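Thread: quick sanity check before group meeting

JM: Hey all, I'm pulling together slides for Thursday and realized we never actually wrote out the predicted structure for the chain we discussed last week. Dropping the sequence here so it's in one place. If anyone has concerns about the input, flag it before I start.
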Amino acid sequence: MQPSHTPAATSPPHAEAGRWVNYHGSLDDHWGRYRIASVTDTADELRYELVDEHDYIALNHVRRTSFTLVPDGPPHHVHNLHERLAAVRRAAHLTYGDTLPGLLATSLRRVPEVVAANRHAEAEHYLLSLEATVGCITSEQFQQRAQAVIVTTGDDSWAPWPHEQTTQPAVLGTVVSTGAE
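JM (edit): ok, ran it. Output follows.
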């Protein structure tokens, strides 16, 4: 179906139904990955209906500028995973001593689980964050490397975790002890 209006030169290209997208519009609570279910040609622009991984309608009347297409291709590959985790662990022990803060220790254990869950780009971001946190890389290196990571359709990064799956990487930030370590 050809749109009846001519998109502005700055508008992103038309996206067809069935494509996976990352929504980043004004509804912050709904940011994430969806599939285009349908496209409607309105008087002023195309509008999109987005569905979740279970084909439930999640967002209606979405503007094209509110999402980016997830590119096709193989998933990102986390290079030297175990060597990088070992370097983070060594640097963390130099900073914190024999006992690592619970959140840091949990994050180190969970990165391989994130890779195993086909969330390669997400794992790369967590690993880069760990490396920057303990000083293995600079903040400039973190930003440069993180921006180079591309999530493709073959990668489940930042899609909702299955309900029965409870393993999610800890978000780094303030270390809070629950006393359960």
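AS: nice. The helical segments are 81-96, 102-116, 120-133, 139-148. The chain is about 30% helix and 15% strand.
JM: adding both to the slides.
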